[in-house]
Design brief:
The protein has 116 residues and is an all-alpha fold. The protein has five helices and no strands. The chain has two domains: 32 residues; 71 residues, Cytochrome c-like domain (Cytochrome Bc1 Complex, Chain D, domain 2). The chain starts with a helix and ends with a helix. Heme C binds next to helix 3, helix 4 and helix 5. The site of heme C has 23 residues, from helix 3, helix 4 and helix 5.
Length: 116
């Protein structure tokens, strides 16, 4: 009798713990889509673009003082190597970013432009 009563208490406690744990996990999963606090969009390439490129190419890649880079633009249709080369070495009014960005960062920007 004493044993089963204490078992019941343990079970109730275990159930309560389980509910709390599941609630925490569920909350974590629901919150999983929200970007980390240090990132505006959760996409490092998009954030980099906003910091380094948007001033000339527009906040939505629509173009400005620099040409449009959005899907359907001539730039988006170019070979990734050509885009990489332009970003790294510059061209005309386009500054060279090869000494300021890592190859991985440049690849991310190329993917952003080609939509890959
Ligand atoms: C100071 C303004 C400026 C900034 C900042 C800038 N660009 Fe440009 N970009 C230009 C201009 C102007 C051109 C056109 C160059 C030319 O062909 O004469 C250009 C061209 C390009 C092209 C080639 C487009 C094509 O059709 O071949 C790409 C790709 C590009 N920029 C990507 C970027 C990325 C990515 C960044 C950020 C890392 C960036 N640009 C930052 C001004 C800028």
């Amino acid at each position: 009798m004493k044993v089963s009563r204490s078992n019941g208490w343990v079970l109730a406690l275990a159930a309560a713990v389980l509910v709390v744990v599941l609630a925490v996990i569920g909350f974590g999963l629901l919150g999983g889509d929200s970007p980390p606090a240090d990132s505006a969009s959760g996409d490092p390439a998009a954030d980099l673009y906003q910091r380094r490129c948007a001033a000339c190419h527009g906040g939505d890649l629509q173009g400005g003082s620099g040409p449009a880079l959005q899907p359907g633009s001539p730039a988006a249709a170019r070979a990734p190597d050509e885009l990489r080369n332009t970003i790294a070495n510059g061209r005309g009014g386009m500054p060279a970013f090869g000494d300021r960005l890592t190859p991985e960062e440049i690849d991310g920007l190329v993917l952003l432009i080609t939509g890959g």
